[in-house]
Each structure stands twice: as structure tokens, then as C-alpha cells.
Fold this sequence. Notes:
The protein is α+β, with helices and mostly antiparallel strands. The protein is built from 5 helices and 6 strands.
Amino acid sequence: MHEVAETLLDAYQAAIYLEPSGDRGNVVARLGHVPDLPADFSAIVGDFFHNVRSALDHLAWQLVLLHGLEPTRKTAFPIHQDAPANGLRVLPGVSDDALTAIDELQPYNWNHGEPGKSHLSPLAVLASLNIIDKHRVPLLGVAVLRDGSWSSAPDQTIQFTRANHRALGSGDEVGTFMVDPPGSPLYDVSLGFALRLVDDSEAAKYAAFDFIDWAMAQVVQYVEYGVLRSLVPLFE
């Protein structure tokens, strides 16, 4: 999936061309033909979040068994953005050590230095995107402008203004270079792109993040280095 994403983003970068705007000598950056996102990309992304979420539920199941109890249909790994009023629970029960570790991993304990940001914790992102994908809208990747670089002569002033497109496709204007003095040449123009979530429903909360580099990578890293390293030793 990462290879598909990188190939797509490279194609976007290679498709950039510059043309005069006819307005005070400004220069418009525009996309030529770019490939469509593969039809199965959304399904793969949704399956990724579902599988990681399911792995946590399997972990909760094993913790219940380790505690000498029998898991039920209600057995699941809890993920809460706000601390539960009646306390954190894993039904029908886990050891005190397991419950303490799970509590420390919860979004409401994720970053005490930034109150109100619990929805951006990796576990909260995992839970939210999994629910959105299953019940509301597919998690589609769209290409957006991420950053850019260019150079000019020392006596030139160049400002770049992004176009209003949230999602970019073939023929779209990416942005405008305002060049002073008008008609001055641009050198080494390089515009970078990122795959991000479609700005729809609750997915809009996460549209500001690079989809591949942040949402997926951060979730995996947190589960591996946070959740598993905290709970797996309990089985030893």
C-alpha cells in the first residue's frame, strides 16, 4: 500500500507544469494528467484499521482468560477519549495490573500537556476511523499539496498562494506564484503532495494529517511500542 501511495504521489509531483496567468506576470502551477487512486485502495485502508482494532480486542480476550474468567460477546479492548464515569472496565474482568496498564494507554491519559487533544491520540484515531469506515463513509485517500520549494534571483520577490482545491486531480490549478518584478523566471520549482483523508463527516478531524505518514504509521507504532510492550509481559 505504501508503494502504491508513493508511486501516486511521485506522479503528482512529476505532472506539475507552469504557465503564465496573464495577471501582472504571475505564474500558475497546474497539474497535467495524474493517475486515479486504485479502486481497491479505500478497502485496503479500511481493512487495515479494522484488523488493528480487532487485534486489540483479541488481546483483551486473552487478558480475560489469563485472569481465569471466560470472555463474552462484550469482551473488547476499551478505548475512551474521556475517562468513564464509573471507571474503566474490561468485561468480564482482567487483573489489576492489566487494567492499570490499559488505563495509562487511554486517550484521556495520552498527553496531559495538551488538554482537549485526546481525539488525536493514536488509539482514538484508530477507534474513530474504524467506526467511520464501517458505518458512515469509506476512508478515501485524496492528494493535496503538502509543501514546496523554489529559487529565484536575489533581486526577485516571490510569493506562493495555494488554490482552493482540497483534493487535486488532472488539470487542477495547484497555486499561483506572484513574481516581482513581473516576468522574472522561476527556478527549481518542486511541489510535494500527500495523501489525506477525504474531508467528509467526522473524518474531517483528521484531514489535516498526512494520511500515510501519520494516521497509519502512528497507530501501528503506538500499538506496537505502547500497548504490546505494556501488556505482553503480563503473560510471561
